[in-house]
Amino acid sequence: MLIPLAAFKAFNADVGLRTKRDFSVFIGFGWLLNNLAGAAWGASTLGLGGLASWSEVPSIFTGWLIGNLIVTAAIAPLLLRYGTPWIEEHELLVTRCWA
After folding, report:
1. Taking the CA atoms of the chain, what radius of gyration do you get in angstroms?
2. DSSP label at residue 50
3. Is the distance from CB of 60 to CB of 14 less than 8 angstroms?
């Protein structure tokens, strides 16, 4: 989903998470809102596709959300904080694509 990208652009935040403000944008939009939307999308898609009954969707949503929150909290901040400067330093990024 493009929620974090839109938020980082709208709030002019740095994806390298260099300040507390950048980290706050990541937590609010990249961690919480993006995972809420993803879990809702995934669980409801299973219900719509008939792969799960609608009574199972809330528990699927909860499990999906918790799993994503844990993994995102463990991996994404480290990759953004330490990977972004490395990618920028080695000029491996695309600029002005979303400008």
Report:
1. 16
2. T
3. no
